[in-house]
Amino acid sequence: MPLTDQETRERVARAEALLSELATLPDGPVRAQVTDTLHAVVGLYGECLARVMLHARDARAALAADELVGHLLLVHDLHPDPVETRVRRALEDVRAQGDAELVAVDGPVARVRLRARGCGSSTAALGRAVEDAVTRAAPEIERVETEQGAAPGTLIAVESLFRPGTPAGHEADGCPR
């Protein structure tokens, strides 16, 4: 039976902790041999995974969508989606909290434009949700920079059409006026 997402994340955290402890081993030759062994095993698994992906052309999207498998594909440079696609997909997952638009990906930095919606949401909460979603979908992104507001070139911000006291504003966000 497959692990739950939470169990998987716990195992990943444990594996990362064990790997980081390798550097603290006191015996240099033993540390080097353990590290070389791990690299050989991971490289062999990567080759196996590359062959699986070759044979599973029709299943690539489903494999990549699985969080654990997707991260494994990234480790072996086999993920079928570029970072921008994964970031945009992650932003779609937070749409319930507000609009989040990818402005650019520049190396390890993603710039995202935010517009919170509704009377109970905040831009800070939306920013945290965006950062969590982006780093989960694209672990190579080290920092998410956010900006607020409408896209450049927008003549009238959508939210200005829903000012308090207007029928549209009252119906659009459901907030008491």
From TrEMBL:
InterPro entries, alphabetized: FSCA_dom_sf, NIF_FeS_clus_asmbl_NifU_C
A biological-process GO annotation: iron-sulfur cluster assembly
GO molecular function: iron ion binding; iron-sulfur cluster binding
NIF system FeS cluster assembly NifU C-terminal domain sequence ranges: 83-145
SUPFAM superfamilies, sorted: Fe-S cluster assembly (FSCA) domain-like
Function: May be involved in the formation or repair of [Fe-S] clusters present in iron-sulfur proteins.
Protein name: NIF system FeS cluster assembly NifU C-terminal domain-containing protein
Source species of the chain: Streptomyces cinnamoneus
Organism classification: Bacteria, Bacillati, Actinomycetota, Actinomycetes, Kitasatosporales
